[in-house]
Design goal:
two-stranded antiparallel ribbon; Arginase, Chain A; alpha/beta; disordered N terminus; 8-stranded parallel sheet; globular
């Protein structure tokens, strides 16, 4: 919305001059708006009318019998979002990601390794065309970054996730580190202060390792510890801040850790926030002893939007059947619905 306040300036000046010349009781003539100076203020509201979802159903095209990483949950989430009426949604597909953008975050050896038909570890199998799936997920992260910079509310609903992938290794169901690729792209294209807020129940070890001590970048992770992958017990370097929560502590303690991380994120004063949105801290998630409920994910979305800076979210973990409802609650929080 554009508001023209400049027209008022010459008008008020004309009225003031005539009152001074003729006295306070004189009848004033309408001012002549000659040679007006226009000053435009751009008023932008982050309470957008719709949310953009970056997705591609083909991302659900890989699976392994009995493995907890079941991309078909994406299709269930898509079904819920398409059938709901509370949130207007704009749908978009991932764009492109170049090799150079990927290689800011990963070594050439790791990038090539994605095409070798051998499992990466016991948790992270090789799938046919996993390099293509991972590349599409990273491309979606860049598409989300662009949308956020354009003032849009955006969520990347893709598989595979990324925050465990290190510069040289695929692990924890992750092959390329989507959020690190997007953050490094932002930093390379003008962003001065970029923050990553990771609320996945597992520490984002890969993101931390890639972004460690990077100028103008900060990483905030709230997670259970001790828990997979065994990292994140303390802060690292000068820009990676960890908020470990002991398994078994009550929900209010977990919420308090999230609130502390949000407060510290505000103090960093970012001009852009990337969210690693993991929903496995949920109380019914089958992999860990989560304690959060649906309302907590709404609150997280609402709190992140209240930062008032461009924001984009990428799906990380979340293995409960309730994942569609958790994502929906988060999106409603972001949009304050």
């Amino acid at each position: 919305m554009l508001v023209n306040i400049g027209l008022l300036t010459p008008a008020l000046s004309s009225l003031r001059e005539e009152r001074e010349k003729n006295g306070a009781g004189a009848r004033l003539r309408p001012p002549r708006l000659t040679r007006p100076k226009f000053v435009f203020i751009c008023v932008h509201s982050w309470l957008n009318f719709l949310v953009k979802i970056i997705t591609d159903e083909r991302c659900a095209g890989y699976s392994y019998p009995g493995h907890p990483e079941r991309p078909l949950r994406i299709l269930a989430t898509l079904e819920l979002l398409r059938n709901q009426t509370e949130l207007p949604i704009e749908w978009a597909e991932p764009g492109q990601v170049g090799d150079a953008q990927i290689l800011r975050a990963h070594s050439a050896e790791h990038f090539a390794r994605l095409n070798e038909p051998e499992d990466f570890d016991a948790d992270t199998p090789f799938y046919e065309n996993i390099a293509g799936f991972a590349r599409a997920s990273s491309a979606a992260a860049l598409t989300a970054l662009t949308a956020a910079r354009n003032g849009e509310s955006v969520f990347s609903l893709m598989r595979p996730p990324g925050h465990h992938a290190t510069r040289d290794r695929a692990m924890g169901f992750c092959y390329l580190n989507n959020v690190a690729i997007a953050v490094l792209e932002a930093a390379a294209t003008g962003a001065k202060r970029v923050a990553v807020f990771d609320f996945d129940v597992h520490h984002g070890n890969g993101t931390e390792a890639i972004l460690l001590n990077r100028p103008g970048v900060a990483f905030f992770s709230i997670h259970l510890f001790p828990c997979y992958p065994g990292t994140g017990s303390a802060n690292a370097g000068n820009n990676c801040f960890n908020y470990p929560v002991e398994p078994g502590l009550p929900r209010q303690d977990y919420r308090a850790a999230l609130a502390r991380a949000l407060d510290d994120l505000k103090k960093f004063r970012p001009d852009l926030v990337a969210v690693s949105a993991g929903f496995d801290a949920y109380v019914r998630d089958p992999l860990v002893q989560g304690v959060l409920v649906v309302d907590d994910f709404y609150w997280l979305g609402q709190s992140l939007r209240a930062l008032g800076v461009p924001l984009f979210s990428l799906l990380e973990g979340g293995y409960s059947r309730d994942l569609p409802e958790l994502i929906f609650a988060y999106l409603k929080g972001v949009e304050e619905k």
